[in-house]
User: What shape does this take?
Amino acid sequence: MKNFIMIGAAGYIAPRHMKAIKTTNNNLIAAYDPYDGVGIIDSFFPNAKFFVEFERFDRYIDKLFREGVIIDYLVVCSPNYLHDSHIRYGLRIGVNVICEKPLVLNPWNVDALKEAEANFKGKVYNILQLRLHPSVIELKRKILSQSNKEKYKVDLKYITSRGEWYFTSWKGDKFKSGGMCTNIGIHFFDMLQWIFGPYESVTVKKISTKSYKGELILQNAKVQWLLSVDPKDLPYNNKSEKRTYRSLIINNKEYEFSDGFEDLHNESYKQIINGNGFELDEVKESIRIVTEIRRHE
Assistant: This one.
C-alpha cells in the first residue's frame, strides 16, 4: 500500500484523485486546501489529516518523515498557476508527484522542472487520461496503420457548459488558469498531437469570452477546432438536458469518444504506480500549443 498526500483537496477534480487512490488500494494520509469545504474526503479517507494552512500541513509532513512514515506520492490539484510551486515542493521533500492538467502554464516551466527533477529522487507525472481511453488508443492504432499522402482533415468540437461562477473564479483569470484553451482544451490538444504527430502551427480565428475557434496544423493532420463553455453552442434542442458535447470527425467520419471517461483517473493511477506514467517529456508539446494560442489573446 502506497501513502499519498494531497494539495488542493477541495478542488473540482480532487474527488477523482481520491477515488483513484482508494480504487488502487492505497491510502491518503494528509491533505491541504485553504478552503475548508472538503467533506467529500469522508467518502474515501475519513481518517486523513486535513489542513487549511500550508505551514501546518508542511510541519505535519515533516513530523511523519521524522517518525519514519514513508510518503510515496504528492497529488497536486491546486489552481493551475500554483502547480509549478507545488510540484517543486513535492520534489524537495523527496516524493513522486502526480499533477492534474495542465502540468504548468508554459513550456519553459517544463524545462525548469526537468532540471529540478534531476536534483531530487522523485519523478513528476501528469494526468493525460485521454491517451488511456480505449477508443482513442484504437484510433491511434488505426491511423498509424494507414499510409496517407495528405494530411488528415480533422474537426474537433468540445463544448462544456459553465455558469457565470466560472468567470469570477480563478478559472476565468487567464493569468491563473492559462485561459480557456489551457484549462479545458489541453487534454484534447495533447490527444491530437499524440495521434497525428508533432505540432507545426496554430492559428486562432475567433476569440470571445466564452469560446475559441482555430486551426491546428500537425505533422499528419489539419485540425479545425472549437472550444466553448457557452451552453448556446450546444447542438441539442433542449440545452438543459446535457451540458457537455464532444465531437471528433476525421476525413468526414465521426469517431465516438463521449463515454468511458469515468474510470480514466483510476487507470492513470494504475499506470503510474506500475512505473508507466506520463512524465515531463510527454507534456511539453501540448503546453507549447496552448501557449501559442494565448499569444493571440
